[in-house]
Amino acid sequence: MKLPVRRKRITAATIKAGWKKKARALTQPQRQQAFDMLRSGATIGSVQETLEIDTGTVLGILELCTVKTVITSLKEVAP
Questions:
Q1: Integer Cα distance of 71 and 2 in angstroms
Q2: How far, in Å, CA of 34 to CA of 62, rounded?
Q3: Which terminus of the chain is more exposed, N or C, with fewer CB under 10 A?
Q4: Are the beta carbons of 26 and 37 closer than 8 angstroms?
């Protein structure tokens, strides 16, 4: 008898990790420009059209720039 195939669950963390990977592929000035646009009140769609990037990348930039993510990154650099 064959064992049933185990499938990897797709979780929110897995999806967010993919977004962050796409965001890290951009240069720092591109990420900063997108984040500045979002902070000034631009919509995700307008940032996407202006910088010609996909929605996942814009959401990844937001994830990278959240307070929780920044604090975690700082703890990894200087514990």
A1: 46
A2: 9
A3: N
A4: no
Residue with tokens 């993510």: 69
Tokens 């919509």 label which residue?
43
Residues 19-55 have pLDDT tens digits of 999 999 999 899 989 989 998 999 999 999 999 999 9
Q: What is the DSSP string of 25-53?
A: TS-HHHHHHHHHHHHTT--HHHHHHHHT-
CA distance 73 to 30: 20
Overall pTM > 0.90: no
**Pair 59, 44: CB distance under 8 Å:** yes
